[in-house]
Amino acid sequence: MEITTILGVIVGVIAVVGAMIFKHINFSVLINPAAFFVIIVGTVATILNSFPSQNIKTIGSLFRVLFTKQKRSSEAEMIELMYELSKQARSEGLLSLEVKAEELQDPFLKKGIRLLVDGAGEELIEEILETEIAAMEKRHEINASIFSSAGTYAPTLGVLGAVFGLIAAMSSINDTERMAEAIAAAFIATILGIFTGYVLWNPFAKKLKVKSQQEVMAKEIIIKGVLSMHNGDSPFILREKLLAALPKSMQKKITEQDHASDQGKKG
Q1: Among 19, 95, 263, 267, which is most exposed with the fewest C-beta within 10 angstroms?
Q2: Angle at which helices 107-117 and 122-170 cross, to 10°
Q3: For the chain, what is the radius of gyration of the CA atoms?
Q4: pTM, whole model, 2 decimals?
Q5: Cβ burial, residue 220 (10 Å; 0-12/13-18/19+)
Q6: Each residue's pLDDT tens digit, 62-120
């Protein structure tokens, strides 16, 4: 499970509930079917009107990405794997990686190694792999825009719901008590629209973009490693090239892990 997403939703709900408690607002005001209807159904309508069916079909998988951890190798694991592949290529030749490629779990890495074994040139390898990354980024951008669009429209729909509530309140203008209740209920739609837009949909879009950037970084590491093997770099040089693509803090962490591992082997 992606604990940060779950915590974010829970904390967002707590923020609203806490504000209501501090302001001594009765929770019964939240029971407003009309407000939920205009926000939820209205948001669904805006998404249907904004995106073709092939993108709408991905929404279920996008929620899985948001609420579950993706199974992929960490940067340290990927660098270690590329290091081992480089050692094998240097000692046994590039063709020895043909069998190894079939055992690889990462499809992108498998494609890179196959291109390397098949004798593709450096420019061709880079072009094919970079094109695949660019296509992936474009897909991810469209997917994230589904949620950012929902985050844009939901608050406006909240205003629309509030207008409906105020119209209903005006119909009870001769009954002060009923009119006051109707006005209070009218703003529930605004609260719901703002909450879903700025606590759920827009942050969800941001998280999808961050996850996409992390995936791009992992694939860029693979490209650097494959090209380094193609150029005949030593395993040490390859490893240093890959580490250089990471933030300093991550480089330090990986280096410390390797040092601890070496110490354990010596011990």
Answers
A1: 267
A2: 160
A3: 27
A4: 0.86
A5: middle
A6: 999 999 987 777 888 888 899 999 999 999 988 889 888 888 989 999 999 999 999 99
| Closest-CA residue to 201 (of 46, 73, 96) | 46
What count of other Cβ atoms lies within 10 Å of the Cβ of residue 88? 16
- CA 180 to chain centroid, in Å, comes to 43
Q: Determine contact, residues 221/78, Cβ cutoff 8 Å.
A: yes
Which residue matches tokens 């009309």?
34
Q: CA-to-CA distance for 88 and 184, rounded, in angstroms?
A: 71
Backbone angles phi, psi at 147, to 5 degrees: -75, -35
Name every residue whose Cβ is closer than 8 Å to that of residue 211 and which is 6 or more positions away in sequence: 65, 70
Highest-scoring range by mean pLDDT, 46-50, 97-101, 167-171: 46-50
Residue type, 110: K
